[in-house]
Amino acid sequence: MNVPSVAIPDRHTLLEAMRRASRAPSVHNTQPWRWVFDGDVLHLYADTDRLLTAADPLGRQLIISCGAMLHHVRTAFGARGWHTDTLRLPTPAEPSHLAEIRFRPWDSPPAGLISRAAAMTERHTDRLPMDPPEDWEALLPHLRMLTSPHYVELDALADDLRPRLAAATEQATALRHHDMMYQAEIGWWAGHSGSPEGIPPTALLSDAEAAQVSVGRRFPSAPHSTRRTDTEDRARVVVLSTEFDSPADWLHTGEALSAVLLECTVAGQSTCALTHITELPTGRHLLTSLTHPTYKPQLMIRIGKAPADEPWQSTPRRPLSDFFTTR
């Protein structure tokens, strides 16, 4: 008796979708994921060798990063006509096994999904000062609608809270200043040219530029430049929070993050995900007091408008063969 074959994408579709999805954001561009396709099922694993042991000892940001890649992968396949049935954390005895994806043909993926897939090559982190986002009152409820299926709350912070966020940024910077493990770690991942991972010098700010942005992580300084010197940072800040604080919540946070960043790109807005405040208990307590008293803040996102004609360079990505295998 013939057993019906399982519908799966062809090799070209598989490789192209994975290559596009590799543009997913990750903390310090560590790209801490590993994918295995066994012929029927696509498996996502956390690459714990890329854990930031000083900034992220519990692996929360690592799993959030993997969640962003998971959403990018599902979006990329969806735009190519493949529905992805996803089982998260399928192997309790193997915590690094984060998800399994099975495929079904999808005749009519929604237009919004196709637009977000197309935006993957344009989305990038913008650490410079931004103008206020356009059509914010229309965009904000749409972003909340996209995070809701992932059990993630999105709260927009009022502009008058910026001084408190700036103070939390300064506190985080001061607490990290003499943390030699943290300084060595961030120095390893930021400011190197010619590497397929980490944050290149072109994506960092000079001291003069960093002084214009009151809410952001302090990275090693780039060579002196003064981009957007006439722009006061007016980006809106949103917080993504979850009811609990487990690996499942972190994975969902990454998926929601991906959806928000891509939708903002579709809407012509620039974004910068921020985790420096949520790495420290005092910072998380502050954000809890500003959002939901019983929820766990996972990260913040700056959303604003950048000059339309300003050039930008995409950050590097590892070749597909480094993180994707078939068997």
Could you give a short description of this structure?
The chain is an alpha+beta fold and 327 residues long. Helices cover 35% and strands 17% of the residues. The protein has ten helices and nine strands.
What does this structure look like?
There is one protein chain. This protein is α+β, with helices and mostly antiparallel strands. It is built from 10 helices and 9 strands. The protein has helices at 11-21, 60-79, 111-118, 136-147, 162-177, 180-189, 207-210, 247-266, 281-290, 320-323; strands at 33-37, 42-46, 82-88, 97-105, 153-157, 236-242, 270-274, 296-304, 324-326. It has a 5-stranded mixed β-sheet with strand order 3-4-2-1-9. A 4-stranded antiparallel β-sheet has the order 5-6-8-7, sandwiched between helices. Helix 1 (11-21) crosses helix 2 (60-79), helix 2 crosses helix 8 and helix 4 (136-147) runs antiparallel to helix 8 (247-266). The longest helix has 20 residues, at 60-79. The chain is globular. The chain starts with 10 loop residues before the first helix and ends with a strand.
**Quaternary status:** single chain
β-sheet strand percentage = 15-25%
Name the poorly predicted regions.
Answer: none
Shape, principal axes of CA atoms: globular
Overall helicity: 25-40%
How is the largest sheet built, in terms of strand order?
3-4-2-1-9
Average pLDDT works out at 96
Radius of gyration: 19 Å
Compressed to H and E, one letter per element, the order equals: HEEHEEHHEHHHEHEHEHE
Backbone structural class: alpha+beta
* End-to-end C-alpha gap: 26 Å
What is the count of helical runs?
Answer: 10
Count of strand segments: 9
Largest sheet: 5 strands, mixed
